[in-house]
């Protein structure tokens, strides 16, 4: 609640920003109308309203046709029934098969893994010449949380934390998308909160209090804590 009081008292949102954000959200959240197929032909079965061609001794002719078929036991002499589940025969392995080849190829793929979220974050901090304290303060994050990120190369942040760090670092939309992706996250086109953050990034609104003020205005979860 302390963060809410800071927002209400210190941040004045300009009416033109709210109007522009309203327009942006209305455009981004428009759902596409489903396509209609009223005139499509849904069936290609022939009309059976006229049964004249099937008149006559249909049953008699059918019995004559099947009378000449071989008995099932003759036609399928190898057919047996069992309560055991059917198992398809296994194809023989090629002479040059090497059991470890597949695993070797998978390991090659793993060898191409990119930087983790933590590695990308720390690298970006260094490239921008910032200190850890500057970043977690700008991101409105607790120092202990940032320490967990720094100490764990495979740390998976919440989306709120990842976006707060992207704002603190002043990342553009592509850079933010890349950073989120390294944590298995993404901006959702159907999330109002994500679209508000996207709007802020596109308009270079990088003060976390300004971003949170807009999120608070639309009853969305705030970034950081």
Q: Would you summarize the structure shown here?
A:
This protein has 225 residues and is an all-alpha fold.
Topology readout:
Elements lengths: L1 H9 L4 H14 L29 H10 L4 H4 L25 H10 L6 H11 L4 H7 L4 H9 L7 H11 L3 H9 L10 H11 L5 H10 L8
What does this structure look like?
51% of the residues lie in helices and 0% in strands. With 225 residues, the chain is an all-alpha fold. It has a domain at 11-24 and 115-217. Helix 1 (2-10) crosses helix 12 (208-217), helix 2 packs across helix 11 and helix 7 packs across helix 9. The longest helix has 14 residues, at 15-28. The chain starts with a helix and ends in an 8-residue tail after the last helix. The model is unreliable at 1-9 and 32-49 (pLDDT under 50).
Please describe the structure with a list of short key phrases separated by commas or semicolons:
mainly alpha, 12 helices, 51% helix, globular, disordered N terminus
